[in-house]
Amino acid sequence: MQLSPATPRNIFSHRKYWAARFGTAPFLPMSRAEMDQLGWDECDVILVTGDAYVDHPSFGMAIVGRLLEAQGFRVGILAQPDWRSADAFRSLGKPKLFFGVTAGNMDSMVNRYTADRRVRSDDAYTPNAAPEKRPDRSVIVYSQRAREAFPDVPVVVGGIEASLRRIAHFDYWSEKVRRSALVDSKADLLVYGNAERAIVDIAHRLAASETIDNLTDIRGTAFLRKVTPADWIEIDSTRIDTPGPLNPPIDPYAMEGQPSGREASGSNSNVAGADEPGSQQPGTGSAKVVRFIREVRNDDRARSVIRLPSYEAVARDPVLYAHASRILHVESNPGNARALVQRHGDRDVWINPPPVPLTMKEMDALYELPYARVPHPGYGDAKIPAYEMIRFSVTIQRGCFGGCTFCSITEHEGRIIQNRSEDSIIREVEQIRDATPGFTGVISDLGGPTANMYRLACKSKAIESACRRPSCVYPGICPNLDTNHGPLIKLYRRARALPGIKKVLIGSGVRYDLAVESPEYVKELVQHHVGGYLKIAPEAIGEGPLSKMMKPGVGTYHRFKELFDKYSQEAGKEQYLIPYFIAAHPGTTDEDMLELALWLKRNGFRADQVQAFLPSPMATATAMYHSGKNPLRKVTRDSEDVIIPKGLKVRRLHKAFLRYHDPENWPLLRDALRRMGHADLIGPGKRHLVPAFQPAGTGFNPEGVRKPKKYQSFRTQHTGLPPAPVAPGKRKHPRPKKVAKAR
Questions:
Q1: What is the pLDDT of residue 301?
Q2: Which of 616, 324, 632 is nearest to 468 (CA)?
């Protein structure tokens, strides 16, 4: 097996498939009637997605579908099919090449449940925000239904849900370690990260009559196999980053009742060990022996694979889980990453190195495919909130080198920024202006995962290819990082100067520690691209949580605020900076949250909505949450223990600190302040956090039932006085006003 080359061919350089003669479809078909109109007797590829079909480049299935169409393939869409039987998966007929399955733009569990595991009442990716249109763990369910519909058709899974579940992962919603989604979905191949290179290669090779089992050399994919090929060198992950002695002292790679690899190897540098229980060499009754190499020469790196502790081992041992998480993140740079392998029962999940980032030329061509830029007409007048939010926005980049431990962007899109050209971006702005229904002259965003990483990269390609740091900006900005915001400033100026463009807003999150490196950028942003307020995300102010988040200190926030206020005043504009914070993140103590609450009150911030930490699959902070260890450093039994705010009571308290101004939270905060020895912060003064009195009708009554307050008057809520007398013939409670729900 030889992996795809490090410098791959342009994704648009393949010879087009014969079906290109059918031309471009106005929309990819979602029914047999649409296929008939296009003159198709079958689809080459059928894409299954948990989102409504919006033919816009902000929706992953639209990008993949249009890309495959540009290669000459006939692509059908099954958007939010009924998963309760296989009938819906037969509606477009049997695909000639494969099913491509994704949960959609969001992980289905994050989409459906809040951080407190409560079911959400709506779904922004569904017409009219209707809930219950996709199953939990959609990738698994959809794949099994596709297999049931046509057992002999290959199934390829991808998207963010599959990407973040490519190895054994901690599942917050079931509070246990689950197997790789590849195993549970029974798919043939898993595509992770940016899928364009892999999906084009898969489609053309299947069209050339290769079998799905033969596609083992594609970067950015994972597949199952029984044994490691003989010409590959296995490296024990514990030789790279030793997790320390196990208790009980068992080798995670050893057969039960057999000597461990270290015992069998004696003093030799090669480590021999048996695989998981049930694994055997073909044609023998003995356990398979795996040879581990302590060091690998550079010439052999391309055929070396790192064996992670098995699913069974990490499921029973949180320290091994943290170790495996650390190794996966260390081996994430496309320039130097090696293949990974993890045993699941009697098979290995083999994960090839990450995909090579797209070039600017490829990014331009990808985002300028013939998207209709509107939802499929089959939805009629139904509103799709996610589309309404992004229909006037433009993606200018992919990836993020921030490395925030609670975020999964880096694990999915990578930390090397992939950029579009300025000309391509301007052409899309002009297309929005000229062809998008309802456009009023305001571009809602020019951005991506962040607002201001456009064209930023390492000054040296050699250093970039060799680097294993998880972040280019923590604990400080790397001296090798080019922080020149000049190209982005030029783009902003050119976009807002276009005829018919009244305003260009920046809706993506600004990485303010980068922004302060370029005061000219801050000035440009503040004076021309802020619509009254700008949201940024300090996330915390205490060193404890910040060090576990890999976020800059509060001093950087204050420097950015000084620039923000200065340039707002110079422009004669009254504008506000709105900071976001996370409650209950690993490393956060009650004292940290108290410090943050006092800081918020001192600075006059009253958060309307607060965010509690949600342990998403494969994130570094999730490994901390599950193991209590810090995978940012070498993981051992005696390595740093991380404080983990677990349990509903603690999480509720941390959220209450962020909403210190809400009377509903005052009883909880008063109890906590007394317990923490800070009863002096209870009182009516400015230096106090919460008052000693409790307004009638707020908080929790003795029975523990929360009383509604939507009909309570300002008098009752804020003074504690009884309601004013009601005049005869008047309503006892005023009719509540309808308030538009913020998306």
A1: 76
A2: 632
